[in-house]
């Protein structure tokens, strides 16, 4: 299995996992917070075309995760999975979209991979995050959650790669010119994970199989890539875990498991 970010941050997020099992290829996309022109370009950069995608899983309705879902799914007939709450929250026309509803705990087989949904804590009605396995390797993602729960940890134990939100640096957020209520929202239990929150989680989660952690969803205003990297490296390096930082425009290279 291999995974890639096609861009991550407050202006758009998209991950893809590809597995080859017995000559059969499955490519699954998670979120599409970019317009269709941009996503075409970024798929091409990853040497993929939309027709390769077997399914798209959506975490929640915020534009940086859901903007391109409906146009992409409609144009290429790609099955889409999301919670009912997320469906209700996306204000777009789902006519002709192959829409499938999933919920916390559901495990969905897509070709040679299985995708499992789990609940998080974010300011939308039914947020989900996912982990995906080909039976050998496991990739997990965790962004857009204001707190870590035992439930989240249980789902992300034993990953080989983890896309982990490092949204803000405490100090930068404190001194930023964001309005107080927005700062409270970001920091709140339905907001986002700070670098310190992500580092604490990385320390806590079962990382015995973890090869790489990808610092993801980094705020352009309240964080800096080098701060996120440093926070991850302090926990990851003693355990021989590689640290990768996902860029808003460039995402990451392919990460082979
Ligand atoms: Zn987001
Ligand atoms: Zn969000």
Could you explain the architecture of this structure?
- The protein is of the alpha/beta class.
- It has one domain: Ribonuclease Z/Hydroxyacylglutathione hydrolase-like (Metallo-beta-lactamase, Chain A, 4-Layer Sandwich).
- The protein has nine helices and 14 strands.
- The protein has a seven-stranded mixed beta sheet with strand order 6-5-4-3-2-1-14. Strands 7-8-9-10-11-12-13 form a seven-stranded mixed beta sheet, with helices on one face.
- The radius of gyration is 17 Å and the shape is globular.
- The mean pLDDT is 97.
- One zinc ion (ZN) binds at residues 13, 62, 64-65, 143-144, 217.
Features:
seven-stranded mixed β-sheet; binds zinc ion; single chain; globular; 257 residues; Metallo-beta-lactamase, Chain A; alpha/beta; 28% helix
Could you estimate the helical fraction of the residues in percent?
25-40%
Q: What count of structural domains?
A: 1
Report strand order across the widest sheet.
Answer: 6-5-4-3-2-1-14
> Biggest sheet, open or closed, and with what strands and sense?
7 strands, mixed
User: Strand-residue fraction?
Assistant: 25-35%
Please report the total strand number as a whole number. Answer: 14
Q: In the CATH hierarchy, what is the class?
A: Alpha Beta
